[in-house]
Amino acid sequence: MTAFTPADEERQRGVRRMKLTAAGLLLFVAVVYVLATWADHAGAGAWAGYVAAAAEAGMVGALADWFAVTALFRHPLGLPIPHTAIIPTKKDQLGVSLGEFVGENFLSEDVVRQRLRAVGIGGRLGHWLAEPEHADRVTAELATALRGALTVLRDSDVQAVVGEAITRRADAREIAPGMGKMLERIVADGGHRRFVDLVVGRAHDWLVLHDGQVMDAVQGGAPGWTPRFVDKKVGERVYKELLRFVTEMRDMPSHPARGALDRFLADFAADLQSDTDTRARVERLKSEVLARGEVQDLIASAWTAVRSMIVSAAEDERSELRLRVRASLLSLGARMEADPKVAGKVDRWVEGAAVYVVTTYRKEITSLITDTVAGWDAEHTTRKIEAHIGRDLQFIRINGTVVGSLAGLLIFTLSRAVGA
């Protein structure tokens, strides 16, 4: 328990003032008792007996309540009377009892559900979120939290996790059948033909621009014993046939080479799905590609690019990310406010989460109270508690004096009446 604060010191001064008041009242009734007894013996009249009886009972009540109040905090008169100094000697037991009381009466499932259901969190939250300034505030807080989280995370750690996750997932799943199905669908729909058109068109343009290079390549591969003019003729012939073939393939959708390519792709798609050797070769190729350093660097750099993009979007108030989040919050708030079913779902979710926490961690929550109380210094705890409630307890002594006096007066009166 923390040290005394200025507020505690002021409370303690108030306790001392009330103690003096209660003690003064006890002294007053004692003086009245002495004077009334003397007056009764001196023959002052019947009234003196009534006053003495009332004062005597008031002293008894005051002393009894003084003993009771004092016994809470210390041994009365320093005497080790059993069942006194309750707070300092029973502090730990009081802490256990307080923890059990809180656990049974505040952390029960029924109490939590009843209190949360009475609050109506879903409707209130929806009404609050439906206000644009509140949605802006939540969006800004989420953006700040997101930036903070991305700043705390080390790029190297995230890159390692992402790279491992992608690699492990790719290794665990065979890709050949999926590729085969996708290729089969593309061939069936004729989607590959545009790619073929692009390739043969570019090939034709390249051959037209690089005729000399093609013929030189053909001549360079001829035997050394053939005449040069023969090599030239062969080179020109090969170039013309190659250009004619590419031109026909470009201009004729029904060209035999196109049909052969369609059949090849269809057969390859079937092999990817059913041929064991083809599937095994694809898997080996996949593993070799994933193991290359360039691929791992590409995977790692993807996180850096994504993080930079997210941070920039979070910092920009007019970014698409923040605008979409704000719009989603406003829409959610409006739905929660207008639709009882949506608000009810939120209420049930909050209730379920709260019940799970209090039922799962009830022991830990109550042990926080028990352990905290056990760690307090007994003397300091006594002074702290007395400073907070001691002033009210002194009224017990005052009330005991007054009530005791009235009770004594009543008993004395009844005794006299019965005796008469």
TrEMBL record:
Keywords: Membrane, Transmembrane, Transmembrane helix. The keyword Methyltransferase does not apply. It comes from the Bacteria. The keyword Membrane applies. The chain crosses the membrane at residues 20-39. Signal peptide: none annotated. This is DUF445 domain-containing protein. The lineage of its organism: Bacteria, Bacillati, Actinomycetota, Actinomycetes, Kitasatosporales. Coiled coil: none annotated. It holds the Pfam family DUF445. It comes from Streptomyces mangrovisoli. InterPro entries: DUF445. GO terms for cellular component: plasma membrane.
